[in-house]
Amino acid sequence: MAHLAHISDIHFGKIASMRVVDALVEDVNSAGVDLVAASGDLTQRAFPKQFMEARALLDRFDAPWLAVPGNHDVYPWWRPGQRLVDPVRRFRRYICDDPYPQQSLPGAEVVGVNSAHGWTVMGGRLGPRDREAIRDGFLGAQQAPASPASRPVRILVVHHHLHLLQEVGPHDVSRGATKALHAAAEAGVDLILCGHLHVSHIEHVKTTRPGREIGAPATAEHRIVIASAGTATSTRGRRSNRRTNFYNHVRTGEGWFEVEERRYDPDLGRFDTTRAHRFDVED
Ligand SMILES: [Fe+2]
Ligand SMILES: [Fe+2]
């Protein structure tokens, strides 16, 4: 029903090679995706030239795109005034002016949230307005009584992590992550597309959400799948993904969705599937 490409941490200013960039565009366009979701760190230092190069890449995709900023897309530390006053001004100018971009597709509702700010160098932050945007974005988009098989898969796009990935090991988690994760559960989010770690990894988290119907228990368990994409085009791959480029395909169907990790093969000069993970949509 819906087919997305999920790219992250493309880091213009630190790209591996134009060969990787070209291979990414070729791979995404040949798959005929409905939407490209970019989960932040489009640049290395938030320079105008880097944003223009990142924008040029996004505009090479045949499909529409949706993007949120990452910590590298805020003014660098040596511009403290701008960092605090309007940290993602350049992202807004060159990429997207909407802090909560949204796309409704047959089979998927996609909402982006900006977790980048100017207060720390690395970490993200999500506050009350962001939680409200998550709830409104998904719950406001509901058109009919939802059943797991017929409702669109709800996909949240955010740069930083809302949950510590158990299998990845120590990593930073956004400030306000727990509350944001609960807001996502309340909104029935099925899948979070994020990045930041430069490690391609899929894991799910069980969280709770308030009961929404009379007679329902005060809290109900809700599963959210987290797809942390590796860096699609930069040299900054970490841990097991060192010097390796990844991105994801997401497909949705009636009552299911799938995340497929694709890895760049430098010998072949193209991306190939490494793993695919299929999930049932839960109520
Ligand atoms: Fe990054
Ligand atoms: Fe980041």
Short summary of the structure?
The chain has 283 residues and is α/β, with parallel strands linked by helices. Helix content is 22%, strand content 29%.
Could you characterize what this model shows?
The chain has 283 residues and is an alpha/beta fold. 22% of the residues lie in helices and 29% in strands. The chain contains six helices and twelve strands. Strand 2 (35-39), helix 2 (48-60) and strand 3 (65-68) form a beta-alpha-beta unit. 49% of the residues are buried. The model has no long low-confidence stretch (mean pLDDT 92). One fe (ii) ion is lined by residues 41, 70-72, 159, 196. Residues 9, 11, 41, 70, 72, 196, 198 line the site of one fe (ii) ion.
**Low-pLDDT residue spans:** none
What percent of residues adopt helix (DSSP H or I)? 10-25%
CATH topology: Purple Acid Phosphatase, chain A, domain 2
Shape summary: globular
Average pLDDT, all residues: 92
Give the beta-strand count: 12
Number of helices: 6
* Radius of gyration, in angstroms, nearest whole number: 18 Å
| N-to-C CA distance | 18 Å
Q: What does the largest sheet look like?
A: 6 strands, mixed
Structural class: alpha/beta
Order of helices and strands: EHEHEHHEEHEHEEEEEE
Bound molecules: fe (ii) ion
Beta-strand residue percentage:
25-35%
Strand line-up across the major sheet: 3-2-1-10-11-12
CATH architecture: 4-Layer Sandwich
The tally of structural domains comes to 1
User: Which CATH class is shown?
Assistant: Alpha Beta
Q: What is the name of the CATH superfamily?
A: Metallo-dependent phosphatases
